[in-house]
Design a protein that fits this description.
Elements lengths: L7 H20 L4 H8 L3 H8 L8 H11 L18
Length: 87
């Protein structure tokens, strides 16, 4: 099972960014076409983003999209060690 969760942190960050982007697009009542213009990506990519299909997105790309909607993004880092999972 080693390696099964190696991308979990990256996926969690992507999900958090995508959720925030989704909420802002919905709050502004943008169509996907309008969102595409603001986010600087093709409309089909907006569709993938809004549906949570995040494999094609890097964290950097999601941060840039988020900044297009809200320039004051804050990213936090926790120094608390994780608890070991026992199997």
């Amino acid at each position: 099972m080693e390696g099964r969760y190696e991308d979990a942190d990256e996926l969690a960050i992507k999900a958090e960014l995508a959720s925030s982007i989704h909420a802002m697009v919905e709050a502004r009542e943008f169509t996907q076409e309008q969102a595409a213009k603001v986010l600087g990506m093709p409309r089909p990519e907006v569709s993938h983003l809004m549906r949570g299909r995040l494999a094609r997105f890097t964290i950097d790309r999601l941060v840039r999209a988020h900044n297009a909607l809200a320039p004051d993004i804050r990213i936090g880092i926790s120094s608390q060690p994780r608890k070991a999972v026992q199997m």
